[in-house]
Write a structure and sequence with these properties.
The chain has five helices and twelve strands. It is 28% helix and 18% strand. Helix 1 crosses helix 5 and helix 3 crosses helix 5. By secondary structure, the protein is an alpha/beta fold. It has a single domain, classed as Aminopeptidase (3-Layer(aba) Sandwich), CATH 3.40.630.40. The two termini are 14 Å apart. The strands form three sheets. The chain has an eight-stranded mixed sheet, with helices on both faces. Helix 3 links the parallel strand 10 and strand 11. It is globular. This is N-formylglutamate amidohydrolase.
Amino acid sequence: MSSEIEQSSPNVEIRHRQAEGPVVLLCEHASHHIPEHYHGLGLDPAHRRSHAAWDPGARDLALSLSALLDAPLVASRVSRLVYDCNRPPEADSAMPERSEIVEVPGNRELTKDQRAARVEAVYRPFCEAVSRVLAERAARDLPTVLLTIHSFTPTFHGRVREVEVGILHDADPRMADAMLSQAHRLPHRCIRRNDPYGPEDGVTHSLKRHGIGNGLANVMIEIRNDLLATLDEADAMARELMQLIQPALESLGVECPSREGQRDA
């Protein structure tokens, strides 16, 4: 597979744009980078690389899946605390003043113009990149299923989470149902539907806009981030997930490549 890397804007990364596998991957929380002009959002330095700022391991996992699935990947290059690309502009959580226990001083009392500037700088380029990739695939008559890749913390507000793999969906459960029907293939994993988050938590924006909005089967995959602490662990998790993804795609009538892909850096 080509190691094509494209930066469609300073804030968006596109990998393997011309890949012909049946999946398009999104990773909205791939980076903890905060551009200099935001002055670190006033964050405590200890929080700048915490889960509040990004999804640790999610980009590594997405890269591994991109190789295994011969799939394009669109990823944000900017911390979700600057703008969360999995939230619509009108949502308070798009530019949160607080994330769990983490205060974000640089997001307090943003003006309408300041919010609009972040939408233009981060959200719009991400959405436009996704739309271009999907449009190009439609023009080539390539079947497409949308997968978004995330990670979550083992504890949240002091509560330990048993779930290891979350399979999330909104109004279109086709891909989620198909993957969950294969959960028996990973008996050592705690796999659940719409856990640790679900549509009621406002986490399915990308699925609705880019998946349901385009008539594409879609699913969000959430992995507990202690299972993605190293590149080797991310690669191993990708191979496990293929045991759910490949038969799920085939059950939807989509041919899935069977390959031992190699991630790019």
